[in-house]
From TrEMBL:
Name by which UniProt lists this protein: Aldo/keto reductase
Domain NADP-dependent oxidoreductase: start-end pairs: 14-307
MF terms in GO: oxidoreductase activity
Superkingdom classification of source: Bacteria
Source species: Telmatobacter sp. DSM 110680
One Pfam family hit: Aldo_ket_red
Record keyword Signal present: no
Statement: the UniProt record of this protein carries the keyword Oxidoreductase: yes
GO cellular component, one term: cytosol
Length: 328
């Protein structure tokens, strides 16, 4: 397993993303399978586990807590969780009010069964709360020893600059994959210039680059992909054309799977620290070993760019994931 450092702590360059094992947007996951998946990740050298209260409305954090107790060594885990999202029967809302954040940190510590969180991230910027105020509250948690390092997710370079003016910023977690590259413009250069680690989510683009999606595939109501524009026509056919061509390239050029090519692509991009890999079963982690120990050469990087540009004529981004504004 390749490693890097976040705020001085060594972490695996492929981390386990636990959105799926929360069981609310990716289909039900049995608790024993979810625990086995997390333990399997640790056995494979993936010490970074990324979670959030919104994943299964607390369930993913509770599972990670059970995993740490089953394993028995808290120091063997680098736990990254988040705050700043609220939810009810009308949807999901950004909420970084001080009262909400203070309640969330205590809830996360309780669900995880730990007295500290390695990396505490604001999940989405709250446009109704000044970023400096949010950063100040998180700085309190850091001084109290409840969190070791602070990060953000889905923040712009300007928003990160505001956050960093109050308290040191260790990391940013944006969506990033072969199909979604918006952060190449300003975010990645800013992070590189300011020593901010970058953890990418949707590294396999909601499984589109995982090698298991096929043309005409339908998704059940409640599955996040049922509302993702990439999985709706006419875009779905365009993306599937790119997927098929990329899978052939991975096989013929490197003897690798599409998922391995996609994850390696992320890790080989300048400024990327960690790629998150989602899984619901231990066998879905089998391909991770094949991501390590090789590089994508410059000519293949250019060929990947050509495949995407030629195949996807109407690209769409991950904007649909943006939470609602409170009281809107």
């Amino acid at each position: 397993m390749e490693t890097t450092r976040i705020a001085g702590i060594e972490v695996s360059r492929v981390g386990l993303g636990t959105w799926a094992i929360g069981g609310s947007e990716w289909g039900a996951v049995a608790e024993d399978a979810a625990i086995a998946t997390c333990l399997s990740a640790i056995e494979r050298g993936m010490n970074l586990i990324d979670t959030a209260p919104i994943y299964g409305r607390g369930r993913a954090e509770e599972i990670v807590g059970k995993v740490m107790r089953a394993h028995g060594r808290r120091e063997g885990f680098y736990i990254a969780t988040k705050a700043g999202l609220d939810w009810n029967d009308r949807g999901v809302f950004a909420n970084s009010t001080p009262a909400r954040l203070r309640r969330e940190i205590e809830d996360s510590l309780r669900r995880l069964g730990t007295d500290y969180i390695d990396l505490y991230q604001i999940h989405w910027p709250d446009t109704l709360v000044p970023i400096a105020e949010t950063a100040g509250v998180l700085a309190e948690f850091q001084r109290e020893g409840k969190v070791r390092a602070l990060g953000v997710s889905n923040f712009s370079a300007q928003q990160m600059e505001e956050f960093r003016s109050v308290v040191p910023l260790a990391s940013d977690q944006p969506p990033y994959n072969i199909f979604e590259r918006e952060i190449d413009g300003a975010t990645l250069p800013w992070c590189a210039a300011n020593g901010v680690a970058v953890l990418t989510y949707s590294s396999l683009c909601r499984s589109l680059l995982g090698g298991r999606i096929h043309r005409g595939m339908k998704f059940e109501p409640g599955d996040i992909r049922a509302v993702d524009p990439k999985f709706q026509e006419p875009q779905f056919s365009q993306y599937m054309t790119a997927v098929e061509r990329l899978a052939g390239l991975a096989r013929d050029r490197y003897g690798k799977s599409l998922a391995q090519l996609a994850a390696r692509w992320v890790l080989d991009r300048p400024g990327i620290s960690v790629a998150l890999w989602g899984a619901k079963r231990p066998d879905q982690l089998d391909a991770v070993a094949g991501v390590m120990g090789w590089k994508i050469d410059a000519s293949t990087m250019a060929e990947i760019d050509c495949i995407v540009a030629e195949s996807v004529t109407d690209p769409v981004g991950p904007e649909y994931l943006t939470p609602q504004v409170r009281n809107s």
